[in-house]
Design brief:
This protein is α/β, with parallel strands linked by helices. It has 3 domains: 225 residues, P-loop containing nucleotide triphosphate hydrolases (Rossmann fold, 3-Layer(aba) Sandwich), CATH 3.40.50.300; 158 residues, Rossmann fold (3-Layer(aba) Sandwich); 186 residues, P-loop containing nucleotide triphosphate hydrolases (Rossmann fold). It contains 22 helices and 22 strands. The chain has a 6-stranded mixed sheet with strand order 11-12-10-13-14-15, with helices on both faces. Strands 18-19-17-20-21-22 form a 6-stranded mixed sheet, with helices on both faces. A 5-stranded parallel sheet has the order 2-6-1-7-8, with helices on both faces. Strand 4 and strand 5 form a beta hairpin. Helix 1 packs across helix 9, helix 2 packs across helix 4 and helix 3 packs parallel to helix 5. The C terminus is likely disordered.
């Protein structure tokens, strides 16, 4: 695999020039994602599309025949056979591009194309510019949404004055007249517009900030090259350490009697095995639709149990939540999603984005429509989104509770997705026919899900009271926005699973709903959320309990810790938001932990310093699994859950999750 360098930053920060110089120096391909949006704006105007008509713009961009030359010395942009490399740099295009760039459907379409280009260059396909050496990609969302797993992620920024001077210099060099007031208005307005759909003014966790305000171009390029070299050296050191560990383990095996199976494993490819035998990933089915059409009820019907939280109000489901399912002897993964809506902001926009990600990461899609309501504009927009995804779709006409209502289902032929299958998720009517149709389009082996050990993966449950930072922690460890994060307490309702690789081993991290009060005192969705959280603890081998460093340890905190102890699970304590409190509060918190949680003194608290450091704590609390079953230390009493010597006992204050 080639190297992937992702660079974000505001307009005029120098990220484009620096990115091109770096790519040229290292012989890498160069991807300007911002130019893709400008090309899209040019294409819409060329086709006479009203830029204020969001649906028309999305349809036009989906059909845009764009070809990009990735040579950093001479990047080119051709749309429908026309070279628009110069045209898309026109000030008029710059003044209207935000209307295209803030369209969520457009962003989803171009994000898909950008990921395809990055993957193509990094894997060295025939015809790639870099021949597999890699790519430098720059633009909005590149470090967090498009390439969250890039080898190097940078935020290149500069002061507003420096950015304006550079932009003016670019225009003058191109022989264009510069209006200082108009230029300032354009740059500031673009930042404001873009900030509604992406975060690019502050560096997220894991992204390195490079401030070029006082740097020359050469100095900026040199610093980025140094950071890339450091990342490459760090990766090489990790590989060397793994080799040394493997060699030491081999030498230590001379003290043991090995049977034929052990010897066969050692001889396989000349390497020690890193885990159990694997089996192909299960095919993935995403269930999508607008809010309150019965998606979660249908998921529960498929599962045969009340697993997904259901309530007779829209918006109960917020994240994409995966469950193992089986039908007609075939196993698959079903993914419940929040309601997909258009022209929404804040929490609702984040929920819609998670639904789109679920579609992208699925092998097939089950679209649920309310047959009693009929086709709405939102349903039509969902269909357009699904068509762009290229995934096979089965249409379920829900809330058809009797044969007399099947005429309502027939009206859904107009969506153009083929036969609508009438179903009543609440009563089970027609669910078998829908699943039979799903089995016809689901592949035997998933094209998107990774292989997993036959015995299953170790599970790590993230638990704590509401708004303590569990979802932010999962996003930090995953390196992307896996779950919806909002300041509103109780955003997470269903436990959310994410497979994350640590030191070459896969773990399942589970984000859970915050435990507000005792189960008997909870109501509605909160009641079922608390039950799901207890279930997540029971299914896990390790529980990470987050404490809010800014608040005194409460009865709720003690109760959550006791739940983990009663369940007999390995325990990791995390003092979250440690860096937000002063030294006096830090000392007081450690005193509270020592006295209020004295019964778990064998699990000293950890103050997170960085996401990858925190991520390894569950592994330290739960030793490696041997073929044939779970580690006893992960399944039995507190005395066997004492963290090893690698655990941090005198940690320093760290970054907030």
């Amino acid at each position: 695999m080639g190297i992937v360098v992702a660079i974000d930053g505001p307009s005029g920060s120098g990220k484009s020039t620096v990115s091109r110089r770096v790519a040229a120096t290292l012989g890498l391909a160069y991807l300007d994602t911002g130019a893709m949006y400008r090309a899209a704006a040019w294409w819409c105007e060329h086709k006479g599309v009203d830029l204020d008509d969001g649906a028309a713009v999305a349809d036009a961009v989906a059909a845009m025949p764009l070809h990009m030359g990735l040579d950093p010395e001479h990047p080119t942009f051709t749309v429908d056979g026309t070279d628009v490399s110069a045209a898309i740099r026109d000030p008029h295009i710059a003044s209207v591009v935000s209307k295209v760039a803030t369209n969520l459907d457009v962003r989803a379409e171009l994000a898909r194309r950008q990921r395809d280009i990055i993957r193509f260059e990094a894997t060295g396909h025939t015809g790639s510019f870099s021949g597999g050496a890699g790519i430098v990609a720059e633009g909005r969302d590149i470090t967090t949404v498009i390439a969250p797993d890039a080898d190097v992620r940078l935020l290149v920024t500069a002061s507003e004055e420096a950015r304006l001077m550079r932009r003016a210099g670019d225009l003058e060099a191109a022989g264009k007249q510069v209006d200082a007031d108009a230029l300032r208005d354009q740059v500031v307005r673009r930042d404001r517009d873009d900030s509604t759909v992406s975060q690019f003014l502050t560096a997220p966790e894991g992204v390195t900030l490079v401030d070029t305000s006082e740097m020359t171009l050469e100095q900026s390029v040199e610093q980025v090259l140094d950071l890339i070299e450091e990342a490459a050296d760090s990766a090489a050191r990790r590989d060397a350490e793994e080799d040394l560990r493997a060699q030491a383990m081999r030498e230590g095996l001379s003290d043991y009697e090995l049977d034929e199976e052990d010897l066969a494993l050692l001889e396989a490819d000349g390497e020690l095995p890193t885990g159990d035998r694997t089996e192909p990933g299960l095919p993935v089915l995403a269930v999508v639709g607008r809010p309150n059409v019965g998606k979660s009820t249908l998921v529960n019907r498929v599962l045969g149990r009340r697993e997904a939280v259901v309530q007779d109000t829209p918006g109960v489901t917020r994240d994409r939540v995966s469950y193992p399912a089986e039908w007609a002897g075939r196993r698959f993964t079903i993914v419940d999603t929040g309601g997909w809506e258009v022209d929404v902001a804040g929490l609702d926009a984040a929920v819609a984005t998670q639904a789109e990600v679920a579609v992208e990461m699925a092998d097939a899609v089950l679209l649920v429509v309310d047959a009693q309501v009929g086709i709405t504009e939102t349903d039509a927009r969902v269909v357009r989104m699904l068509r762009r995804s290229g995934k096979p779709v089965v249409l379920a006409a829900n809330k058809v509770d009797s044969p007399a209502q099947e005429g309502d289902a027939a009206a859904l032929w107009n969506l153009g997705l083929g036969e609508p299958f009438p179903v009543s998720a609440l009563h089970g009517r027609g669910s078998g026919e829908v699943l039979d149709a799903v089995m016809e389009v689901l592949p035997e082996v998933s094209a998107v899900a990774a292989a997993a050990p036959e015995g299953g993966l170790h599970r790590v449950a993230l638990v704590g009271r509401p708004n303590v930072g569990k979802s932010s922690l999962l996003n930090s460890i995953a390196g992307r926005e896996r779950v919806v994060v909002n300041e509103t307490a109780g955003t997470t309702r269903d436990p959310v699973d994410e497979i994350i690789e640590l030191d070459g081993r896969q773990w399942v991290f589970v984000d859970t709903a915050g435990i507000r009060r005792r189960v008997k005192q909870s109501r509605g969705a909160d009641y079922y959320a608390v039950l799901r959280t207890q279930g997540a603890i029971d299914k896990a081998e390790v529980a990470v309990v987050l404490l809010d460093a800014s608040e005194p340890i409460s009865e709720q905190d003690v109760r959550v810790v006791q739940q983990v102890v009663d369940a007999g699970r390995a325990l990791v304590l995390v003092n979250n938001k440690w860096d937000l409190v002063d030294e006096e509060r830090q000392k007081m918190l450690l005193w509270e932990v020592e006295h209020d949680l004295a019964h778990v003194s064998w699990a000293p608290p950890y103050q997170p310093g960085r996401p990858d450091g925190m991520a390894h704590q569950p592994a330290r609390a739960c030793p490696r699994r041997r073929p044939g079953g779970l580690d006893h230390a992960c399944a039995h009493g507190p005395a066997q859950r004492i963290p090893g010597p690698a655990a941090v006992r005198d940690p320093a204050p760290g970054a907030r999750w």
